[in-house]
């Protein structure tokens, strides 16, 4: 895996769960599902500040989200389940019905770097 | 003004743990006090009466009878409809939905196909040795969570049934050893005695290595490692499994959504069989079911059709084929020409490109609350709130059925009534 490609793990968080039952269309639900957790070492290596907007790109699509530093291994990034994460998940189910919701490869790009 | 009335042992329907010890105090059809609810459940009850749907056709206000009739018309005129969702409704509504699928020659699939469906496919291959949560609470001395994070997804599960529960023979946390296998150190992993980090997508390899070691064989390694772990670490984990008297493995979507998908759970279920084979210990396994009645969706569908999800009625008899009759595949391949969504939000929860097809076909949604799918649905049917304003049956993750009591009043009928009425209109047309 190259330096800025990661396996995207989508999953539950307690705040995402609380927001999902408090109105899917609320600002809070959007807030709790529109960030990506990245290893502190990766953020440092890519010179990304916590809270900075980053671009995640997969074969299925791309999204802009803010990033949070987290205690993660350097081969994965994590996003809470939700509509934004699902923009990155493809529809190939390998004959099982299940998309690759925890095994999609995404590219992490600094938004600032792209606009410069 | 009415008096404050207390309802005890109410069941929360948010997750598959179905906590049935919620206490609510009600006055003037409003919840005034709430006890024993987890952080998510509390929000669910607080929000229950807000943000409610109302009958709509093509964005215009309508009547309940008109939306029911419109739904029947859409399904009757469709050549290959999809009925999808079902995991947050009652077994009664699920049963009526199967009948509706038969009447309309529909595909019927539940959210299980994007959840624990692959695990269910594995069960069909190898079977799963399991137990009730009560038995695990009372007896299990080794608890393994594999690709599961109940601390965030099922917040009261550990207190009621596992790590922190007070069982008959296992009284507290110190009576149980807890191991978490995962790709990240989740809050659940932080509560464990041992966290074993699995290389992403290598669960199958690790499970098979554990099986071989338990069978007395030596697994092949790559540079001395399997799934990113030294062989000695895997041997030590296998030893712990062997030394348990009553082990339990709770698995999450870390197994069903990655690499080998159903083969991951097949390997885990086979490991459980191996551990039980020499009668030195007992081992059981259970999926950490997400939605309140997703277990019920599989049970009801299997009872009604012979199959747990991904069922097609286009030939008037049920056919089963995950990968073909599952919602993501049917939508992504644009094979369905109408959709009836029952208590779910595919526009929020399915891959965007699959959900997009719902905007191109007549879509009906039956749900008590507005969501991303009701935003564009052609027909919106409101409904009562399961376990709050509607009664019914739901199945806990260990397949124990629980009866839901209603304790508030509602202006809308429940899901079961709505689905039955649509079916009757099609049957009698």
Automatic annotation (TrEMBL), chain A:
Entry-linked Gene3D superfamilies: 2.40.40.20
A Gene Ontology molecular function term of the record: oxidoreductase activity
Domain Molybdopterin dinucleotide-binding residue range list: 6-101
SUPFAM superfamilies the UniProt entry points to: ADC-like
Record-linked Pfam families: Molydop_binding
Entry protein name: Formylmethanofuran dehydrogenase subunit D
Lineage per the UniProt record: Bacteria, Bacillati, Bacillota, Clostridia, Halanaerobiales
UniProtKB/TrEMBL annotation, chain B:
Keywords linked to the UniProt accession: Oxidoreductase
UniProt keyword Oxidoreductase present: yes
InterPro entries: Formylmethanofuran_DH_bsu, Mopterin_OxRdtase, Prok_molybdopt-oxidoreductase
Keyword presence, Oxidoreductase: yes
Signal peptide start and end residues: none
UniProt xrefs under Gene3D superfamilies: Dimethylsulfoxide Reductase, domain 2
SUPFAM superfamilies: Formate dehydrogenase/DMSO reductase, domains 1-3
Entry's Gene Ontology BP terms: methanogenesis; respiratory electron transport chain
GO cellular component: membrane
Ranges for domain Molybdopterin oxidoreductase: 67-384
Record field: transmembrane: none
GO MF term set: formylmethanofuran dehydrogenase activity; NADH dehydrogenase activity
Coiled coil: none
Name by which UniProt lists this protein: Formylmethanofuran dehydrogenase subunit B
């Amino acid at each position: 895996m190259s330096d800025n490609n990661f396996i995207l793990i989508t999953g539950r968080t307690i705040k995402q769960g609380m927001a999902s039952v408090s109105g899917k269309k609320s600002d809070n639900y959007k807030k709790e599902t529109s960030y990506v957790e990245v290893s502190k070492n990766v953020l440092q290596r890519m010179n990304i500040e916590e809270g900075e907007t980053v671009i995640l790109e997969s074969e299925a699509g791309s999204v802009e989200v803010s990033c949070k530093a987290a205690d993660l291994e350097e081969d994965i990034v994590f996003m809470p389940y939700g509509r934004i994460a699902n923009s990155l998940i493809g529809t190939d189910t390998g004959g099982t019905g299940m998309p690759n919701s925890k095994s999609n490869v995404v590219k992490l790009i600094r938004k600032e770097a792209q606009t410069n | 003004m009415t008096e404050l009335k207390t309802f005890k042992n109410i069941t929360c329907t948010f997750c598959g743990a179905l906590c049935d010890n919620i206490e609510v105090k009600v006055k003037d059809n409003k919840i005034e006090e709430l006890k024993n609810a987890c952080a998510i459940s509390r929000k669910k009850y607080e929000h229950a009466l807000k943000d409610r749907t109302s009958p709509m056709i093509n964005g215009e206000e309508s009547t309940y009878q008109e939306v029911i009739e419109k739904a029947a018309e859409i399904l009757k005129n469709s050549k290959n409809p999809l009925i999808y969702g079902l995991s947050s409704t009652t077994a009664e509504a699920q049963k009526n939905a199967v009948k509706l699928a038969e009447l309309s020659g529909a595909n019927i699939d539940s959210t299980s196909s994007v959840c624990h469906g692959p695990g269910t496919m594995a069960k069909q291959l190898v079977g799963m040795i399991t137990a009730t949560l009560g038995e695990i609470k009372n007896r299990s001395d080794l608890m393994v969570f594999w690709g599961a994070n109940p601390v965030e997804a099922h917040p009261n599960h550990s207190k009621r049934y596992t790590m922190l529960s007070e069982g008959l023979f296992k009284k507290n946390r110190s009576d149980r050893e807890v191991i978490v296998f995962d790709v990240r150190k989740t809050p659940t992993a932080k509560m464990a005695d041992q966290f074993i980090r699995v290389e992403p997508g290598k669960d199958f390899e690790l499970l098979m290595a554990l099986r071989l070691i338990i069978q007395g064989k030596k697994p092949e390694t790559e540079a001395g490692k399997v799934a990113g772990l030294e062989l000695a670490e895997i041997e030590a984990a296998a030893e712990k499994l062997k030394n348990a008297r009553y082990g339990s493995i709770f698995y999450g979507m870390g197994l069903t959504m990655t690499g080998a998908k159903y083969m991951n759970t097949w390997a885990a279920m086979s490991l459980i069989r191996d551990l039980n084979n020499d009668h030195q210990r007992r081992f059981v396994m259970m999926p950490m079911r997400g939605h309140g009645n997703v277990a019920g969706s599989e049970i009801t569908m299997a009872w009604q059709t012979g199959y747990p999800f991904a069922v097609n009625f286009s030939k008037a008899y049920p056919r089963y084929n995950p990968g073909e009759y599952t919602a993501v595949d049917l939508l992504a391949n644009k094979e369905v020409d109408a959709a009836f969504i029952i208590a779910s939000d595919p526009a929020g929860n399915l891959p965007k490109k699959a959900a997009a097809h719902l905007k191109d076909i007549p879509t009906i949604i039956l749900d008590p609350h507005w969501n991303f799918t009701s935003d564009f649905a052609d027909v919106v049917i409101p409904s009562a709130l399961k376990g709050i304003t509607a009664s019914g049956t739901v199945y806990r993750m260990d397949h124990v059925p629980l009866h839901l009591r209603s304790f508030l009043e509602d202006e809308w009928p429940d899901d079961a009534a709505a689905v039955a009425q649509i079916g009757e209109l099609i049957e009698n047309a």
